[in-house]
Amino acid sequence: MARGIRDKVAIIGMGCSKFGERWDANAEDLIVEAFNEALTDAGIEKNQIEAAWFGTAFDRVHVGASALPLSTSLRLSSIPVTRVENMCATGTEALRGATYAVASGACDIALALGVEKLKDTGYGGLPAGSRGPLPDLWVPNGSAPGNFAQLATAYSAKHGVSAKDLKEAIGHVSWKSHQNGAKNAKAHLQKPVPMETILGAQMIAEPLGLFDCCGVSDGSACAIVTTPEIAKALGKTDIVSIKALQLCLSDGVESTFNTWDGSHFATTRVAAKKAYEEAGIKDPRKELSMIEVHDCFSITELVTMEDLYISAEGQAVKDVMDGFYDADGPLPCQIDGGLKCFGHPIGASGLRMVYEVYLQLLGRAGPRQLKNPTFGLTHNLGGAPHSNVSAIAVIGRYN
Amino acid sequence: MTTGITAFGAYIPRLRLNRASIAAAHKWAMPGLRGMAKGERSMCNWDEDAITMAVEAARDCLTGRERSDIGGVFFASTTLPFLDRQNAGVISAALNLEHGISSLDIAGSQRAGTSALITALRSAGEGDTLLAAADARKARPASSGEMQFGHGAAALTVGVKDVIAKLVASYTVTTDFVDHFRGEGQEFDYGWEERWIREEGYSKIVPQAVKALLAKTGVEGARISRFVMPCTMKGIPEKIAKDFGIPAEAVADTMGEVCGDTGAAHALLMLVAALETAKPGDLILVASFGQGADAILLEVTDAITKLPKREGVSGALARGRKEEDYMKFLSFQDNVKLDWGMRGEVDNKTALSSEYRNKDMVTGFTGGKCTVCGTVQFPRTHYCVNPNCQALDTQEPYSFADSPARVMSFTADWLSYNPSPPFFYGQVQFETGGRVLMGFTDTDAGQIEVGSALKMMFRIKDYDHDRGYRRYFWKAAPVSTGKEA
Predict the structure, then answer these.
(1) Does the beta-carbon distance from B438 to A145 stay under 8 Å?
(2) pTM score
(3) Which of A219, B7, B360, B440 has a 20 to 30 A CA-CA distance from B159?
């Protein structure tokens, strides 16, 4: 195996806009809000940025195609700016572009920025529309919750977990994120919600109720990356570095072959193994201090605990109910509220996860600060259980 | 040379609207409808039309036989989904029939089904003709048609080999008697006084054809074992039968109580019901009315005993599920516009070039089977999906339409736009291998679980109301009828 990305790139500045229903803001406003925070944090001049990666997924409902919305919003003069899109994993994809550029030596300082302005569609949830001339002919017009809800039926069938027990466990997943979101001033949803409200909520896609689903939000997040050496030269002493960046995409086996059982993410398992190897992590359950996973739906988070090899297969329900992933548990998950409460502006989400790990590692997480975190993992997923893009990053202190 | 019917099939939509619920909805204005509120009528699900019903009846008809010996497809209907685009062509594509076949839509009258049968019988030669007849007539709310109509389809193959019911003779009377009509651009029929239709229409025109037919063949009415005559007016077939000496017990049930009148399909649907219980030597007289009358005399042969078992009318009737929601019926018929929200505003424009390029895949539900590793897969692609194979360009066409399947995972989605929420869909695992994420149809809450048996049905996938187009694909339906649900 190649040596990988571990410790080749440092994050010297991060920013994140307030997430939510930003009726006040265009995409440009969100971009600038996140970028200015990151630039101040990095302590560099804008013209020191040598290349930029711009992530957005549903460009047709806000900024339109290409990287021009970023280069013009920030007046990035005469530098390469690249637009990336990989469904809900777009934010991490932008970070990968910037990170690899720095690691290759092609540039010294690069920017990764993700944004999504979704609340101009007129309705909740992701924008509906054509999937393309061929998929439109045969792919069911389902929704994201409908596709992810199927994990629940398959998981129940495989592990013999009753529908009621599973519903309670995924309810706890959302309950925990609401508790955490209440301590995050930038979060879209900042109210704790009682369990009975979660369990009794209106059905969206069986068995997922309203509180099993994250909403969609407006927001932007960004990172400025460079080499650890340059970071030091810039006077940084407490340096956060990227330990692993892995991406795995479905090759059609889950959706088309006969082996996948529908209860887990085959891609996440591959990406997780590679990420641990790249980061030098042997026992993720013990070594990770915090995880930010793609909890687009409560059931996604639950099965992801197993796909990340943190909960043993079939044991996620027990770990969740034991509070293993709660704020005061051994391995807090979504300490910032996650997609569920921090919000899910698609192109920004992967970078928002990294933002939280960055804040926690630097001790800047305020009322939700964890004690001495060393490694944080982000898991950013795009698509559906049967066909998806799974992106994992491990972030830690640079020694 | 013996010419005749070589096989039969039927299809009736699963939903059966209780007529009492229609009458109850109109009670405030038309209390008299209560008199017609007996039994139930079949109604299309939102994703069914004359084409999809015809395909299902045709599949039933083709049970246990090679499709390569079908030489032509006739489609009879007064509710053709397309006025200019051959509807029989869609049926041929859905059935994966050979391309070198003839095809024809026959429309314009309630006797389109019987006239198509006569045409097919007269032109029988090399290769059987598949004749499908289907109607999904709309009726104005509170009209007698709303009560009397049903939706359904029948299919027959006609040829010269293995004939199960041979043509003895036929006779047609053509007369421009306008009992009702549906003009260009009109949604609904406009009909004249029922008493006039009974006296001057049915009672005078049908007997002309029957009389000529019996005279032509020299067959006594008493020898007729089944008299098939669609009519929504009580007592007319019985009266005509009596006048010709046809035994009262030979008069076929018009299925008014259990199905309703299925328009151009109805004579053939009743004929299929008759064939299901017919014995060799039986004489079946089919008479149908519509701007004249067709009369056909058929003699059942020994070959009928060798016909493989099929659903037929009895199977289709048994699959029924009681529906009592009149508003659902109105909405499915597009007789009321509900506010489906912005998610219902999606533009369903179909790329016709893509649809044509992928016709076998989409309309024919054809995937691939790898000749190297044997893996069955959908869609058919260049590289085999088996991770241990991945051979390039090794897949032969493989049809999924008749493969048994099971639910692998599913959901009931209340968020997506669907004309009959919740939208059931999920991963469908085929027993021959291969899996497809599919929409489910004819599914009720609690009816399916992981592992439930599924069968494939040809249905409307999306409507493009702006352009008057609709696209079809296959959906998974539970094998169980779900009556208990």
Answers:
(1) no
(2) 0.95
(3) B360
